[in-house]
Amino acid sequence: MRTVIHEIEKFRDRRYLFQDRFEAGEILAGMLKPEYGHIEEGMVLAVPAGGVPVGIQVRDILGLSFDLIIVRKLKIPGNPEAGFGAMTLDGTTFLNESLLAVLRLRDSQIEAEKARVRSELVNRNARFRGGRPFPDLAGKKVILVDDGLASGFTMLAAVDMVKKAGARETVVAVPTAPLRTIERLSAEVDQIFCPNIRTAYSFAVAEAYRHWHDLDEKEVQTLLAGC
Fold this sequence. Notes:
Layout: E1 4-6, H1 21-36, E2 42-46, H2 51-62, E3 65-68, E4 71-76, E5 79-88, E6 93-95, H3 97-103, H4 107-129, E7 141-145, H5 153-164, E8 169-173, E9 176-178, H6 179-186, E10 191-193, E11 196-198, H7 217-225
Parallel strand pairs: 1-10, 2-3, 2-7, 7-8, 8-10, 9-11
Antiparallel strand pairs: 4-5, 5-6
Helix pairs in contact: 1-2
């Protein structure tokens, strides 16, 4: 079945659209609510850190259960803002092979970054989730939430975890993403909700927000404590 992609047409290609992540989550939840509001078999999984405030808004408005999904970007050496892939908590990796062909990283560099991220995933799961087992997703409709997508490899890792856990339906819900990334994900999920799809070659998630900062771990823990 062809993936259904939902956007808000008047938001296409706009920048500095959302006041902050909470407003973005409210708009996103409004798109999701007609189909997923208060369904018994639904669950929201947020990608920390930036996906947490978005996910909390979605959870509150839809009235669904909530948890985090711990996945991390594999960072390019010397450029921590960019990644060459992503890894799940169980160690599964997704590599941007076309980018790696350009970067020409040594195998030792790739393996060193994998080892670093593997340790970071375990630590983040302990700090943010108390090391709890991954939730039972068998037969559930799972909504994966982040504050935006760039290359989409981190979300691909999250999708893989959800599918392995037996979800009946996998939905990606993000406030902003480039069209090329939406197309990359479309073969892997049932539905995508993204109010602000952008088509320009240059893209940054932060450009969708008027007020933006990187959330630190203390902020994430404070938000989770209020859940």
